User: Which sequence fits this backbone?
């Protein structure tokens, strides 16, 4: 087998220069990325950033003005049994309300020559066995999400693409889906999951694609992004926050407070913070390297982009 | 992977989609029931008194016939032949005929066999009031010969009276030893249809045509001389009687009237199958929803995600809804036919004025299968327009307007306009439900179209709409 065949058979989603405009609105703007197997890739951006549009373009549902998208080396439209290559969840409200969950999966299975045994298997896998013969119209949003995930898993595909799968899930469901996604990636599958909530993917995604206004802002391992966003900041937990801020600001640090009794210090090494606080008699209960959340990292990234855009405009 | 295999998968998926939404299945059953119900109502509301009239001319098969013409005849006892050359023909109208005939008696309705030159320049063989079979082009002058052997009559033609070609055989019904053979001319009345806003009436005016015959020869045992006689009578005003003269072996015959089936244009089978018109009003929404439900929720994303070849998906959808509509139409038509047949017979639609129409008769089969095809085509048309518009209510309105409105618009229109309207809209498809020949004399405007033309119009609409839908859906964002 030649090298090129091996590469083309890889379980990846490849997007190159993808651009989609609806009228004068640019929904996706020259997007390029690769989703790798064995990882959960988070696709993050606010509502309207172009995540869903990108997914529709990958599936050949909408036609781009420019660029290409391939799934396992092929245009999605050319796949004869697409469900066995890439499972997708685009919209949990898609199934017809008058059909039962089992019948919804049945026609999907028929369309790709998937055995009926898989229908029962995926219903069990997502915990919908007891509701299998109920009409989808009576399902909660969480149950519909589970059905959508079952549909994505139906063809046992090496690639999964899920649009906001955690929406509507209860806390237990969120824990479940995190485990499911991690497990699927651990088996070597490529998993692309979108979310507009940064925190949702913080512990799940190995890699992040951050998108804003149709443009790719970051394509980075999650750990790296968080480390970068954490920077040289130090969190001081103290009941004397005002005093601490006065002292540290006086020494030239940038001081902010994000939650009560926590002061975040930028621009001073840890040793100096300790000595300054001790010298001023400010008591503190904890002093640690700041761990940025994905929200902060995102805010920082988008601030840069916004400033860049503003500078470009002026 | 073969295309066939992939196609059968999509078909299987679409079929599953259809039957798993219970209210659609219920809609199809409801459409069939509604069709049958209206069929029964139509059957229950009709009454025909033709059989009570005392002067019906009944043919050898026990059905009313038309049997009026000018006959110049001599008796023939036992086997023999009649030979004549149709020397010239002056037809006043396309249905006119001149030829030679063997007839069991001069009583109207008696069995006969004839070789005919028609005004449309065809040689036609006609026996016992059937619709006649064409035996190729022919025009006067042409030699004709009928040879009797028992009940069997063999027809031959010749260009010169020397070389003869057999063109067919016919059979007389229970012929006596002596039959009448001779020359005849017929000329059917012209039908004039008068149409007003509220009523349609067909009046008839008599026509008369002329032909000359020579080289008239009778071979066999005969008696007497040539006798000219007007057979039957027509109620047509003004009364026209034929004439016949003979000079120097040349017979000049003028005649009026028609020979053939005598059943009126009323079509009880069509009247009952018309119940489908109401069933279709339930069928159309089901076919539309089968498509628009994909768009009302973004189910189409799942559908095209599972089967990215959109052309194949739409074709499969058309096949499934077409087959389901066909099945609904067929079940409704069969049930209507079987349930209403005894009702119609009890209400005067029975021989001799109306034939017993058995299921095996081509015209009945055509009407029943045609009703099913009409339902199938309307299902496909509805689904295709739904795919184009993606709007349920608008699609239902458009299909209903295409199918229903022309019927009501055509009723008060002049004949030509009404015929065009029927030939250009799916409403004309109702013509396939008729078991009788097209006629201008009925209030139902689709009766003017030939059955297959009517069906072709609907199928044309469905095909074009489906092609447009595929073209559009393949190019548009899902």
Assistant:
């Amino acid at each position: 087998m030649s090298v090129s065949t091996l590469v083309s058979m890889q379980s990846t989603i490849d997007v190159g220069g993808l651009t989609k405009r609806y009228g004068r609105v640019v929904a996706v703007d020259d997007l390029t990325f690769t989703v790798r197997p064995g990882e959960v890739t988070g696709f993050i951006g606010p509502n309207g950033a172009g995540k869903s549009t990108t997914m529709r373009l990958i599936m050949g549902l909408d036609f781009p003005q420019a660029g290409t998208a391939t799934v396992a080396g092929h245009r999605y439209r050319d796949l004869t049994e697409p469900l066995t290559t890439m499972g997708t969840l685009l919209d949990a409200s898609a199934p017809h309300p008058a059909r039962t969950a089992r019948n919804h999966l049945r026609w999907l299975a028929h369309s790709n020559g998937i055995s009926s045994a898989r229908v029962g298997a995926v219903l069990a896998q997502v915990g919908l066995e007891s509701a299998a013969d109920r009409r989808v119209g009576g399902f909660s949003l969480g149950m519909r999400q589970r059905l959508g995930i079952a549909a994505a898993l139906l063809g046992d595909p090496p690639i999964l693409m899920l649009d906001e799968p955690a929406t509507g899930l209860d806390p237990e469901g969120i824990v479940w889906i995190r485990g499911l996604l991690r497990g699927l990636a651990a088996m070597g599958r490529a998993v692309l999951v979108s979310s507009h909530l940064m925190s949702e993917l913080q512990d799940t995604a190995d890699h992040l694609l951050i998108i804003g206004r149709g443009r790719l802002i970051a394509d980075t391992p999650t750990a790296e992004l968080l480390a970068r966003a954490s920077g040289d900041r130090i969190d001081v937990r103290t009941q004397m926050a005002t005093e601490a801020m006065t002292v540290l600001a006086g020494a030239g640090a940038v001081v902010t407070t994000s939650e009560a009794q926590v002061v975040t210090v930028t621009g001073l090494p840890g040793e100096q913070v300790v000595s300054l606080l001790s010298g001023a008699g400010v008591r503190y209960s904890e002093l640690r390297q700041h761990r940025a959340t994905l929200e902060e990292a995102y805010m920082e990234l988008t601030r840069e982009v916004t400033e860049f855009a503003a500078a470009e405009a002026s | 992977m073969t295309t066939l295999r992939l196609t059968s998968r999509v078909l299987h998926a679409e079929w599953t989609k259809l039957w798993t939404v219970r209210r659609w299945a219920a809609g199809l059953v409801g459409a069939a029931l509604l069709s049958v119900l209206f069929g029964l109502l139509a059957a229950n509301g009709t009454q025909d008194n033709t059989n009570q009239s005392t002067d019906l001319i009944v043919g050898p098969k026990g059905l009313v016939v038309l049997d009026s013409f000018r006959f110049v005849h001599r008796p023939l006892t036992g086997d023999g032949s009649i030979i004549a050359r149709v020397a010239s023909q002056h037809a006043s109208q396309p249905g006119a005929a001149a030829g030679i005939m063997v007839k069991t008696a001069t009583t109207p309705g008696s069995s006969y066999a004839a070789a005919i030159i028609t005004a449309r320049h065809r040689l036609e063989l006609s026996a016992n009031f059937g619709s006649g079979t064409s035996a190729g082009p022919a025009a006067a002058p042409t030699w004709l010969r009928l040879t009797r052997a028992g009940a069997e009559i063999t027809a031959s033609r010749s260009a010169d009276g020397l070389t003869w070609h057999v063109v067919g055989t016919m059979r007389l019904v229970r012929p006596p030893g002596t039959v009448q053979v001779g020359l005849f001319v017929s000329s059917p009345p012209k039908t004039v249809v008068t149409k007003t806003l509220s009523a349609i009436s067909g009046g008839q005016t008599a026509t008369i045509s002329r032909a000359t015959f020579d080289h008239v020869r009778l071979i066999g045992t005969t008696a007497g001389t040539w006798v000219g006689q007007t057979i039957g009578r027509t109620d047509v005003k003004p009364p026209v009687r034929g004439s016949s003269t003979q000079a120097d072996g040349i017979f000049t015959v003028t005649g009026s009237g028609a020979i053939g089936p005598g059943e009126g244009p009323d079509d009880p089978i069509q009247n009952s199958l018309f119940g489908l018109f109401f069933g279709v009003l339930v069928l159309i929404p089901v076919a539309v929803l089968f498509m628009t439900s994909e768009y009302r929720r973004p189910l189409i994303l799942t559908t095209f995600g599972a089967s990215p070849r959109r052309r194949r998906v739409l074709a499969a959808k058309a096949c499934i809804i077409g087959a389901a509509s066909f099945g609904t139409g067929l079940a409704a038509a069969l049930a209507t036919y079987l349930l209403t047949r005894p009702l119609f017979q009890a209400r005067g639609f029975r021989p001799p004025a109306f034939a017993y129409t058995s299921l095996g008769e081509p015209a009945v089969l055509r009407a029943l299968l045609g009703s099913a095809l009409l339902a199938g085509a309307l299902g496909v048309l509805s689904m295709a327009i739904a795919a184009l518009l993606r709007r349920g209510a608008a699609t239902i309105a458009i299909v209903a307007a295409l199918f229903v409105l022309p019927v009501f618009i055509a009723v008060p229109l002049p004949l030509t306009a009404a015929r065009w309207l029927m030939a250009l809209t799916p409403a004309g498809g109702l013509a396939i439900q008729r078991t009788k020949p097209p006629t201008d004399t009925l209030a139902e405007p689709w009766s003017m179209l030939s059955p297959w033309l009517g069906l072709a119009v609907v199928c044309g609409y469905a095909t074009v709409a489906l092609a447009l839908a595929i073209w559009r859906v393949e190019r548009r964002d899902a």
User: Anything to note?
Assistant: Chain A touches chain B through 35 residues (CB under 8 Å).
